[in-house]
Design goal:
This protein is of the alpha/beta class. The protein has helices at about 5-10, 30-45, 60-70, 85-100, 110-125, 140-150, 170-175, 180-185, 200-210, 220-230, 235-255, 260-265, 290-305, 310-320; strands spanning about 50, 75-80, 130-135, 160-165, 185-190, 220, 255-260. The protein folds into three domains: about 5-10 and about 205-270, Helicase, Ruva Protein, domain 3; about 30-190, 3-Layer(aba) Sandwich (Rossmann fold), CATH 3.40.50.300; about 285-320, no CATH class.
């Protein structure tokens, strides 16, 4: 189905999609720091690392890009996107990702031996093996225990398998549970992805528009950017939802500038009620309240002085005398 506003805004593709797409990846400060933590983890040749953050902070696309950035001559990689499985299924998924042959009727012990042999052989060649698990908060306790056993594959001096968890805040809460302490104690690098700040939200929106082929036919005013930031709390996925709806709104109105009113119209739409918390409109009178209070006090003093109700002039004389 054609997207109606693309031609209108001179775009070659949808700039604010919800599917993780490395083409639109924007490297914020927090994503850069996460990548640096992971590179340090690999240099230290440790067993486990964990990158976590709220929904929509860009964990999935970061995990893919990190793996793609690694030298294929140095690293073997496996990416597990859906870890809702038992330990045998997990092992099969790892073998498949690493290109290790196995028979579907093979026992778990046989498949484990195949993996161990592969890891040792690759280690002799100077190659490291990395398993990245996305949505790791969904892993069952049984599979967590099996993953811990996998981490025991090592030489006398170093680990030959490195495992990186990407998950939501719930992952950290689970790892704090007593029965998972033997796994959590082995995680040497933990980093929390943060939301974008206001300046990054501006750059993020501009970046995605340019990646989609924008020639400047659509503009976001400063007030609109501030409201998008306030509403989305800096989470990229929510920013995408709001911006996509804004483009549709402009298209329906035959306009090209996203202002604060356009954003407010979008976030106040009933279809957005479950996606965002609508910011309450601040009454302008509250901005000027201190000035109104001061003016009222002065006016009262003047009235009291004019009608000689109180000797206000003596009050002021004492002040200035000091």
């Amino acid at each position: 189905m054609a997207i109606p506003y693309l031609e209108y805004f001179g775009l070659s593709e949808k700039p604010f999609g919800l599917t993780p797409d490395s083409h639109f990846y924007y490297e914020s400060n927090t994503h850069r720091e996460a990548t640096e933590h992971l590179r340090f983890f690999l240099l230290q040749k440790e067993g486990f690392a964990c990158i976590y953050g709220d929904v929509g902070t860009g964990k999935t696309v970061l995990s893919r890009l990190f793996l793609d950035s690694l030298d294929k001559n140095t690293y073997n990689t496996a990416l597990i996107l859906n870890p809702i499985m038992g330990d045998k299924e997990f092992l099969q998924a790892v073998l498949t990702e690493l290109g290790i042959d196995y028979d579907n009727n093979s026992s778990k012990k046989d498949m484990f031996s195949r993996l161990e042999g592969f890891l040792l052989e690759e280690h002799k060649k100077g190659k490291e093996t990395i398993i990245v698990i996305d949505e790791a908060q969904l892993i069952t306790d049984e599979t967590f225990e099996f993953i811990r056993i996998l981490s025991n594959l090592e030489t006398d001096k170093e680990k030959i398998l490195h495992i990186i968890f990407f998950g939501q805040q719930e992952l950290i809460e689970r790892l704090k549970q007593p029965h998972l302490r033997y796994l959590s104690q082995r995680i040497s690098v933990i980093y929390r992805l943060k939301a974008l700040n206001l300046n990054e939200v501006n750059h993020y929106i501009t970046h995605r528009l340019l990646k989609a082929g924008s020639k400047g036919f659509v503009q976001f005013e400063d007030g609109a950017l501030e409201l998008i930031y306030e509403t989305s709390k800096g989470y990229p996925r929510v920013i995408n939802i709001i911006c996509d709806r804004c483009l549709l709104y402009l298209y329906s109105k035959s306009e090209r500038v996203v202002d604060r009113d356009a954003v407010r119209a979008v976030i106040n739409d009933e279809s957005m009620s479950t996606l965002v918390d609508t910011p309450k409109k601040t009454k302008k009178i509250y901005r000027y309240m201190p000035y109104l209070v001061a003016a009222t006090i002065v006016l009262i003093l003047i009235i009291l002085s004019v009608f000689n109700i109180i000797p206000v002039h003596r009050f002021f004389n004492k002040i200035f005398a000091h």
